[in-house]
Amino acid sequence: MKFDIIVIGGGLVGASLVAALKDSGLKIALIEPHESVPVPQDESWDSRVYAISPGSAAFLQKLGAWQLIETGRVAPVYEMAVFGDDNTAHINFNAYEIGLPELAFIAENRQLQTAVWQTLSSSKENLQIFRPAKCTAITWYDTHVDVQLSDGTRLETALIIGADGVNSWVRKQAEIEVSRHAYHQIGVVANFSTELSHRQIAHQWFRRDGVLALLPLPGKRVSMVWSATEDHAAFLRNLPAEKLCQQVEEASSHTLGTMQLISPPVGFPLNYVHVKKLVKPRLVLIGDAAHGIHPLAGQGVNLGLRDTQELAAILNTQNALTDCGNYILLRRYELARKEDILALEWVTDGLQKLFNNPNPTLARIRNLGLEITNHLPLIKNRLIRHALN
Fold first, then answer.
1. Predicted TM-score (pTM) of this structure
2. The pairing of beta strand 28-31 with beta strand 2-8
3. How far apart are CA 46 and CA 43, in angstroms?
4. Cα-to-chain-centroid distance, residue 7
5. 291 CB contacts (<8 Å, ≥6 apart)?
């Protein structure tokens, strides 16, 4: 079977790219190892949520996915309050101050994935989905790429797109160099109901034991992301529900009053991953396969969706006679994305190291920096506007 494009990985970023290309006229295959997307089965809340920027929401709406998500499952963020580790330094970002209706939307992973996959169900004959399916071999040639699946199926394509996550198998097969280091932190995530209203404010505390964020969910609910040291994360995850609530209440200065756990805590390791090349002849990497950043800025998924938008814009201008795997064509994507990716890698990695350093002099400098920036609206607005794309 021959295709113009094979996308490996059907998560939010990979599926969004396919949705963005479904009317291109290009023949596309999507290979996804899981049997089904994580469709909501009940009224429970997904522990994994994303802060979707207005730019990403507009892109998903253009795909026809955003409007499929229940409005009662999405919370807008009007303000963000960030606190230093001295209990006094802080900085606030407000949508009203920069003339926008909101800074972000908090949405569940499974709601987003379900919505994007629903848009694929109406795709034309140019899309073929292989699921559950696993790639076992990729062979690159000058004119095409051969892909073999675990069931023996062989596919041929002009272009492979790796959207298979931070530990990308595709990237490894292409022998693309990666520099990475572990933060020796675990992102502990859980959802809570709260005594007090969050008032659509996202809160974040840079603490000596990590970074704690409470993101607004609909109603009096919040999603917690606590980037904690490995030992402290293990301690938090093993606490009884009542004790965990007390820990979060104290760490958040009782900002939202008493809390009750509504989804059990889970954890994922945090790593910095810099990919030396985003493209090779007949290969493109997008999403977490192309970069891995600390979650303290909440920008990982938006970075991936910006990859998708840029690549889709380039490929949608082509036609059936164009060689989609042409290296010069793919370099346009890499050059367009390089600055955005490097900027976020540098900022998130730098902030993590700055606030994770126990040096008392650095502590004074970083907290002073928060206070100074909070009183410089031009700098504040520039910082926040980049995150809105």
1. 0.93
2. parallel
3. 9
4. 18
5. 273, 274, 275, 303, 304, 341, 344, 345
Could you tell me which of 270, 262, 94 has the C-alpha nearest to residue 192?
A: 262
Backbone angles phi, psi at 344, to 5 degrees: -70, -35
| CA distances in angstroms from 32 to 6, 11, 170, 292, 330, listed in the order given | 11, 8, 13, 21, 23
What gap in Å lies between CA 243 and CA 23, rounded to an integer? 52
pLDDT of residue 355: 82
**pLDDT confidence of residue 376:** 64
Give yes or no for a contact between 21 and 6, defined as CB atoms under 8 angstroms apart: no
Mean pLDDT, each 10-residue run in order, the chain (389 residues):
96 97 92 80 87 96 96 96 85 87 95 94 84 96 96 97 97 97 96 98 91 97 97 96 98 97 96 97 98 91 97 87 89 96 90 81 74 66 69
Q: How far is CA 301 from CA 53, 119, 186, 245, 341, in A?
A: 9, 19, 18, 28, 12
List Cβ neighbours of 274 (8 Å cut-off, separation of 6 or more). 178, 179, 180, 291, 292, 345
∠ CA 78-84-88 to the nearest 5 degrees? 95
List strand residue ranges (DSSP E) for 40-177, in order: 49-52, 75-77, 79-83, 90-94, 104-108, 127-130, 135-140, 145-149, 154-162
